[in-house]
Amino acid sequence: MAVTTAGHSRTSHFDLKSAQLPAVAVVLKTTDAAVFAADLAERLAGDPEFFDNDPVLIDLAPVREAAEAIDFAALCAALRAHRTRPVAVRGGSPAQMEAAQAAGLIAAPEAPPAREVREVVQEVVREVRVEVPVEVPVAAPGAVVVDKPLRSGQQVYARGTDLIVMAVVSFGAEVIADGNIHVYAPLRGRAIAGARGNTAARIFSTCLEPQLVSIAGIYRTTETELPESVRGKPAQVRLDGEKLLIEPL
């Protein structure tokens, strides 16, 4: 990057580029920071090393209409105590967003509406019958099938059923299903199974390299390198209680 000044040029010592940062979404369901802190401590009591300085996006949509003020300083302190880094907030009322920004959080874009997601699905999805030589549980009847690569920024949601992806899920893309997710190609983006709370849902991939995996709201980012036994290999993700397990197939 060259910068011209006063008739001569010099070389800059930095570049400015766009970037994407995978983050854990915390959907807030109470305005009481003490109740949230206690609930978070209870959930992570069995695995205090679950997070590893993961960035956090706080979603305020469920409490947007609440009259009570939110103590964002206490909220962020509770998150930091469990090795996370709250950086952004979205979905709140104007007063909530103003208070959050005063506490040092940035305002993130709103999640895309469901109508836009359906349009994307209609564009890239068609149902096909396939025979797959990988021994995994059979997908639910009426599963949504994607047979085209998903690029960064694209999102597919299989409402009420499983999702089968026959091509690569690129870094920055997102696949969501109320049931299981099957990716018979490299999984490099974000995969969210059991989106409506199905704790029996699983994620399968023939080449597991994800930014983030989630089942029934339990998230794990993979900025920390996956074990050699599953990295880039056929693997599954499932829940054991409230802990995500990543295992080879």
Structure in a nutshell:
The protein has 249 residues and is an alpha/beta fold. It has helices at residues 33-43, 72-80, 94-102, 114-124; strands spanning 2-5, 8-11, 24-27, 54-59, 84-90, 106-107, 144-146, 155-158, 163-165, 174-177, 181-187, 190-193, 203-208, 212-215, 218-221, 235-240, 243-248. The longest helix has 11 residues, at 33-43.
Which characteristics define this entry?
Alpha-Beta Plaits; 6-stranded mixed sheet; 249 residues; alpha/beta; disordered N terminus; Pectate Lyase C-like; 5-stranded mixed sheet; 4 helices; 2 domains; globular; single chain
Write the layout of secondary structure elements.
Elements: E1 2-5, E2 8-11, E3 24-27, H1 33-43, E4 54-59, H2 72-80, E5 84-90, H3 94-102, E6 106-107, H4 114-124, E7 144-146, E8 155-158, E9 163-165, E10 174-177, E11 181-187, E12 190-193, E13 203-208, E14 212-215, E15 218-221, E16 235-240, E17 243-248
Parallel strand pairs: 3-4, 4-5, 5-6, 7-9, 8-10, 9-11, 10-12, 11-13, 12-14
Antiparallel strand pairs: 1-2, 13-16, 14-15, 16-17
